[in-house]
Amino acid sequence: MPEFPEILSNSFTAVSTLQAAIISLLAAITMRRYGSIVYFAIAAIVIDQFLTIALKKDLGASVSEVINQIIGGIPELDATQAVVRFIGYLILITIFYGVKALFRK
Prior knowledge:
This protein has about 100 residues and is mostly helical. It has five helices and no strands. α2 packs antiparallel against α3 and α3 (about 35-55) crosses α5 (about 80-105).
């Protein structure tokens, strides 16, 4: 099991893509109160994994083939990666939510 500083460092690397930034920004915008951040971070992981798998698939395949490939690829995310992404999304959503809170009033 990796040490906490290593997990924290990896969490920034795991969510340092434009895709993760857009997902986090949308989560922060739609989040009404900070108490629901855990749910939004979990949803962000699911959406991120779904988009990552979907974008890697063959564009010439039928819709049903793509859906079957995506569903089959969801178990590719192991527990350590999920925790690392969860922490990363918590941090990113918190940053965007803080900026939103500054300009809300």
